[in-house]
Automatic annotation (TrEMBL), chains A, B:
Pathway of action: Purine metabolism; IMP biosynthesis via de novo pathway; 5-amino-1-(5-phospho-D-ribosyl)imidazole from N(2)-formyl-N(1)-(5-phospho-D-ribosyl)glycinamide: step 1/2
Gene Ontology terms for molecular function: ATP binding; phosphoribosylformylglycinamidine synthase activity
SUPFAM superfamilies noted in UniProt: PurS-like (SSF82697)
NCBIfam families for this protein: phosphoribosylformylglycinamidine synthase subunit PurS, PRK05974.1
EC number: 6.3.5.3
Subcellular location: Cytoplasm
UniProt function note: Part of the phosphoribosylformylglycinamidine synthase complex involved in the purines biosynthetic pathway. Catalyzes the ATP-dependent conversion of formylglycinamide ribonucleotide (FGAR) and glutamine to yield formylglycinamidine ribonucleotide (FGAM) and glutamate. The FGAM synthase complex is composed of three subunits. PurQ produces an ammonia molecule by converting glutamine to glutamate. PurL transfers the ammonia molecule to FGAR to form FGAM in an ATP-dependent manner.
Pfam families: PurS
Phylogenetic placement of the source organism: Bacteria, Pseudomonadati, Pseudomonadota, Alphaproteobacteria, Sphingomonadales
Tagged with keyword ATP-binding: yes
Subunit structure, interactors included: Part of the FGAM synthase complex composed of 1 PurL, 1 PurQ and 2 PurS subunits.
Transmembrane segments: none
Name of the molecule in the record: Phosphoribosylformylglycinamidine synthase subunit PurS
Organism: Aurantiacibacter atlanticus
Amino acid sequence: MRKAAFMKIRIHVSLKPGVLDPQGRAVHHALEGLGFAGVDDVRIGRLIELELADNTSDDAIAEMCEKLLANTVIENYRIEKVAA
Amino acid sequence: MRKAAFMKIRIHVSLKPGVLDPQGRAVHHALEGLGFAGVDDVRIGRLIELELADNTSDDAIAEMCEKLLANTVIENYRIEKVAA
């Protein structure tokens, strides 16, 4: 029997342009408060690293994003297959 | 006078191996609850997108990470310069 093989997938979730990012603004103000100049904008997103069975289909991964990992009303997501 | 030019930087912040990730485990259980098979592990990190003046030094960016953007006791960070 073939030993189960896994693949590493990264999901990059970020707020859609135009969506207010209070967390990003708080970090922006904190950076300026620490004296860092030249910071024009800060946006905070999520980086989800998945170890999946290597026979998991692209459709299943997209479905995971649509149903749970990203709030597609206000967020975009990008699926990245990490070289083993 | 030269118009201020900005560059896009992405900071990938992830928990160090071995550090417990309760958020990742919650998502893992939720995926299984939705019927997705073959999920071996889930780790959640942060994706911070910065628009910085293009004369910001690498040292200054690293200092932003060390002082604010990452908790270096339990997190690793990777700085990515995004092509304009």
